[in-house]
């Protein structure tokens, strides 16, 4: 059996509709067979813990998910494969009727989401899906796979942007990214997060991201010596002359680059830059700058690369390294120090058989991990100079808090002992969730990637710098409205009381089962 | 400009030929314009440091790379995009003549590679490319992107396999993987590394990997209560009954699962398993086992999931947790504790203008990072019970070492003070590098994925367990033949002497440039 399907991948790209967990499909059949498929449901995607020791996440990947969803159909070939999937005893999992239904299905729900490039805080809904249970369930894995990863990389990129200040930053991570598509997603997300350009040509072609690159060590090694290699490169690319100097000895390389630069000047061109890729970058950049300046190449820029991340950039800048351009690869494209964002997708409400919407809450041994029931929205308050607070509220049961200008209490979703009071008079208000799909139809126009990037850059100035700090960042007033907090606490107590009743009544599963059968 | 090309991605998959770093294409034009494109060259892909504190890497991804390379062409659309790429002053980087050449080009070289599932040690060539410089350069980034990531995940999977012993292990990582293709690659590599099945349906369809899954917390929350949800699930899937018990309270959930199991037995089926996804897995698995056994469900298996990796599995097994099946996700699919393998691709030899092959070596401030020149092969020696040594040698200049049965000295590629002497009489010998492409044509048959997986499992028994150990693993005798070591040291000294001469002679770039112009 194994390997029978290889041909499909070799000869054309798969449909990607099966890029999901099997349990989404078993649940879909389950809902369908239990007459639950059409129950109206609300799910939220959110994260609990910000990555990299920070306070925020930069949302990304949402439009890529929307592209996927717009084309999401189960092909004949997909259904033919599903017909072969078995459970225990080699019996097929899926019925023919269900697969016929699945083949005709397309997504029918409505989705609100934050715009890519928005800074979001823990427990805030990034995506809200209101759809038949069947539809909402089937999109979970793909939504999480795309948005978790791209948001992670955009967040990392925003930190690198903060570290680099106004310096140019290039993304070089493809060779260590998680596959070709992982690399393409990384380039897109890194650009949204504030990086200036990428080495990934496909990202240039697909997304219009500026691409950069000159030569590798192998170019130098292919020639008889470094000087010959530099001259040859500048001969072919007089207007793309950033020379990698560390193949044999970095400062010797700088001297050779200066020589190549002199010849470029004879042609009316100039040496654009040198690149350092190993060694002590503070020492080498300082020495290289001196060599370049002494030789009259004050405008030649110094590019540094080699396992850089935001912490190292801060350190190098703090030590005064005269580096103009930063090349970041592995640490960005793999989000090396925390390579997964734990975004989750939780059911918050579902209708019963009479069509009444009932709220739902997942409990947990840790109270902080309990989900937030309801139909949630987030309003962000901005006092004209900075964002002052985000209020998560249940838009089905309460007005947008503070519309009347009264000060509002915001309560931490994790620890109710932490709360803030924010003024709501004289603030501008932004609803973070905006329509993406309405009744199965995509409504949001596709964005220019440069606009998404600009949103991130704006966000980085909209929040107090102490909140964006790398070490022990200050908290930001993001949490629940007082009404939502009270509803959630009541619901938690009710759910816990139910469990407690089971236990103290000497619960016997058989009896309860009997009761339900009556 | 940004966003102009979005349409391409929306309406069809890109060709993936541009999934490379821009500098590969600038170098290609450079070689072409400098009459260097046809120079015969040898490159090796290898890694320097094993991940996860271990001693080895499980090679994977090579056949996926071969699939890519077989179809690798620059389309008209690709070349049209490249014509728009600019350097400084907005001048185009690529010439029309070069792009016409590129559009007609296909890979012409020969490639030897280790079989997927082979355990490889630091500095051993995993892939050897012998091709015109132009061709060898153009494939670098894609080779590294695919093989680095898949080898990383296969290695992680092999460690999880070692930890789990004979227990079943499932891979659940798609929602945290680096994009959809990252998730597909992860499932493939995890299977090669020894995992038993995946939740990723696309991986099932594309590669024939067994798929598994039942239901999520949302299934439970969609019903009025947990017991109703379990009964409904078992009604639809009586032969796929693994019930997730921790939505509200894990042990309460086990009691409900037992109730559902009793109803399954009334139908002649049985409760296959319960899944624990949070809480203290030692305590909960112990209590769950007792509840199940007391209720007569001794055969019902306990599945555990939730941020598991090899270290946690060892710990849980060590504490006697009666867990039968392990679900691993994030920690495997992202290789969480070390999410990048630093595999590199280095030029080892190139012909000069007279067609004479000259060896090349990249030096470095760290002697251990210097590359190995020549045309390398690796022979693995097996004494009938265990592998006893790997010898890297230059097959262009020496016979396979130890063919005559004399004991061989193997010298560490990193520190020559470390060396081993291995007997070569009465051993079986395996050449690790095998032909993959000959003169641009793929020659290796595609493998069954189950055979690649079996190779890994065999490898895990072919090496002494102390070498595979997680903490402070024992060293394995993998290194250079005495002759190759001597050649490399001579070459290093020559190169260093060249640099030294430049410096002590008061090197002046201008003068040398003048000399070269004469």
From TrEMBL, chains A, B:
GO CC entries: cytosol
A GO molecular-function descriptor: nicotinamide phosphoribosyltransferase activity
Nicotinate phosphoribosyltransferase N-terminal domain segment(s): 18-148
Start and end residues of each Nicotinate phosphoribosyltransferase C-terminal domain: 379-485
Modified how: Transiently phosphorylated on a His residue during the reaction cycle. Phosphorylation strongly increases the affinity for substrates and increases the rate of nicotinate D-ribonucleotide production. Dephosphorylation regenerates the low-affinity form of the enzyme, leading to product release.
Keywords, ordered alphabetically: Glycosyltransferase, Ligase, Phosphoprotein, Pyridine nucleotide biosynthesis, Transferase
Regions of compositional bias (Basic and acidic residues) in chain numbering: 508-518
GO biological process: NAD+ biosynthetic process via the salvage pathway
Chain residue ranges for the region called Disordered: 495-518
InterPro entries linked: Aldolase_TIM, N/Namide_PRibTrfase, NAPRTase_C, NAPRTase_N, Nic_PRibTrfase-Fam, Nic_PRibTrfase_pncB, Nicotinate_pribotase-like_C
Family affiliation: Belongs to the NAPRTase family.
Protein name per the record: Nicotinate phosphoribosyltransferase
